[in-house]
Amino acid sequence: AEVAIEAADVVLVHNDLTLLHTAMDLSRTTFRRIVYNYFWAMAYNLTAVPVAAGVLYPFTRTSIPPAVAGLAMALSSVSVVLSSLLLKRYKPPPLGDHHWHGAGPSRGNLKGGWFRRWRMAWEGRELVAGAELHA
Q1: Using 50, 70 and 90 to split pLDDT, how confident is the model at 135?
Q2: Mean pLDDT of all residues in the chain?
Q3: What is the spatial distance between Cα 37 and Cα 19, in angstroms, rounded to a whole number?
Q4: 3-class state of residue 15 by DSSP
Q5: DSSP string spanning 28-81?
Q6: What are the φ and ψ backbone dihedral angles of 82, each rounded to 5 degrees?
Q7: What's the pLDDT score for residue 73?
Q8: How far is residue 69's CA from residue 51's CA, in Å, rounded to a whole number?
Q9: CA–CA gap between residue 2 and residue 121 (Å, rounded)
Q10: What confidence category does residue 81 fall into, taking pLDDT thresholds of 50, 70 and 90?
Q11: Residues 6 or more apart whose Cβ sits within 8 Å of residue 2
Q12: Is pLDDT above 70 for 99?
């Protein structure tokens, strides 16, 4: 049993399978937050670092003082940390609101997002109240 626990990616310590759904949703939410933070950090670094280095100086004859550039960099790091702290407000989804295909949160009465609905319509299947019906 200990070998199985060591080899597993997720171990449920309670007899409640809904915790697996919560673990999957939490991992998706965490990954989305990582991608969000990475995108904004890269966007900031690709724009603000060259400006702080003086790329615009030949055109505008103005420069950013090093203290202001350092403060902006520190605020960028603080904003990433604060954004990550929003994960503490995570609430497990209702059990019927599953989206196992990674298509994002449910929209309206059809679960799974626009791509899944399009794919099912293309394949000639219907999606009624979250249950797939094969034609």
Answers
A1: very low
A2: 77
A3: 26
A4: coil
A5: HHHHHHHHHHHHHHHHHHHHHHHHHHTTTHHHHS----HHHHHHHHHHHHHHHH
A6: -65, -40
A7: 86
A8: 9
A9: 46
A10: very high
A11: none
A12: no
